[in-house]
């Protein structure tokens, strides 16, 4: 590929889909990477990109995805799961292992292979989805929060390592967002976004729950030339929640196991 290429993992729905659309609008040829074939293919067709079926826990999938991209300029490592829910003493260790595999190991693999192809070219932007749960306690499932704290450390460490090669590494930290991932927990149906929006507390800043489109602008900024002097940082796109936490639907009910 000779175009400007961006990869979005977890790109078939929610934050990933909104960001894939925005990056396509910004002029990137977008590779939508996901395990959800039907919505991924439909999105890729709509935005003039490509769908690549990708399991982020499988290194061969990530390697093939990056090799397919060719002149990779932006990698948005967004795939993630809430995974193991409930009180700590009831943690399902198999589900915890899966959560770690997707959220932390998957991010590591994305960073590894993105840097592999960006370093010889001397440029590139890698963006990772983090969470308020990785920064403050009590606002996310236990294992999920631990993986996001790990992601934050990984971003800082890799950013320091690769800055000499012209590669920037940053994370975006969304607040509670109405998406299929959130709906699967709050509404027991990943497709019921309306019920999820009704359940979630509105942000005092904007008077409504967060939407995937609220994150797309932040990712567009981190992907583009306007952030050329930005690396190793967390961009909080959470309507101020992490700065001043208050009651939020992802800190109670099914997320907290009560």
From TrEMBL:
Keywords carried by this UniProt record: Lipid metabolism, NAD, Oxidoreductase, Steroid metabolism
Cell inner membrane recorded as keyword: no
GO terms for MF: oxidoreductase activity
Record-linked SUPFAM superfamilies: NAD(P)-binding Rossmann-fold domains (SSF51735)
One GO BP annotation of this record: steroid metabolic process
Family: Belongs to the short-chain dehydrogenases/reductases (SDR) family.
Protein name: SDR family oxidoreductase
């Amino acid at each position: 590929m000779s175009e400007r290429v961006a990869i979005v993992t977890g790109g078939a729905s929610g934050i990933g889909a909104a960001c894939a659309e925005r990056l396509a609008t910004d002029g990137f040829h977008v590779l939508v990477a996901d395990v959800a074939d039907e919505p991924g293919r439909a999105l890729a067709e709509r935005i003039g990109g490509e769908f690549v079926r990708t399991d982020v826990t499988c290194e061969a999938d990530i390697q093939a995805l990056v090799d397919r991209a060719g002149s990779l300029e932006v990698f948005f490592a967004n795939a993630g799961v809430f995974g193991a829910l409930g009180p700590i003493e009831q943690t399902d260790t198999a589900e915890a292992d899966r959560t770690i595999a997707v959220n932390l190991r998957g991010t590591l693999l994305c960073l590894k292979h993105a840097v592999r192809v960006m370093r010889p070219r001397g440029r590139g932007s890698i963006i990772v989805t983090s969470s308020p749960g990785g920064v403050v306690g009590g606002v996310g499932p236990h294992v999920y929060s631990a993986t996001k704290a790990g992601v934050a450390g990984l971003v800082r460490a890799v950013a320091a390592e690769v800055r000499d090669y012209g590669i920037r590494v940053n994370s975006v930290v969304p607040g509670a967002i109405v998406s299929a991932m959130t709906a699967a927990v709050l509404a027991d149906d990943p497709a019921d976004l309306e019920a999820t929006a009704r359940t979630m507390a509105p942000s005092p800043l904007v008077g409504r729950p967060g939407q995937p489109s609220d994150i797309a602008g932040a990712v567009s900024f981190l992907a583009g030339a306007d952030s050329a002097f930005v690396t190793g940082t967390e961009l909080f796109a959470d309507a101020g929640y992490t700065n001043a936490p208050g009651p939020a639907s992802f800190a109670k009910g099914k997320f907290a196991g009560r």
